[in-house]
Write a structure and sequence with these properties.
The chain is mainly α and about 70 residues long. The chain has one domain. Helices cover about 70% and strands about 0% of the residues. It has two helices and no strands. Helix 1 packs across helix 2. The longest helix is centred in the C-terminal third of the chain and has 29 residues. Keywords: Membrane, Transmembrane, Transmembrane helix.
């Protein structure tokens, strides 16, 4: 598995699923009718960044284990 070209797609899909589950659990929602730059958008982007970094790190560690 030297080719990791599929990794960004996998990370995006897993991040999307996890963020949607979290949003459903806590009841988080917003719309752009409240304005483009608002606190809810910043919360959304922050959550996406945190989850995607975590998923990317976890998948990289898993792939390193399988290489050994």
């Amino acid at each position: 598995m030297k080719d990791k070209s599929y990794m960004p797609i996998v990370v995006l899909i897993i991040t999307y699923i996890i963020t949607r589950v979290i949003y459903k659990l806590i009841g988080f929602s917003y719309s752009f009718s409240e304005g483009i730059l608002n606190i809810k958008l910043l919360i959304d982007l922050s959550l996406w960044i945190i989850i995607s970094v975590l998923i990317n790190t976890i998948l990289n560690k898993i792939l390193l284990k399988f290489k050994e």
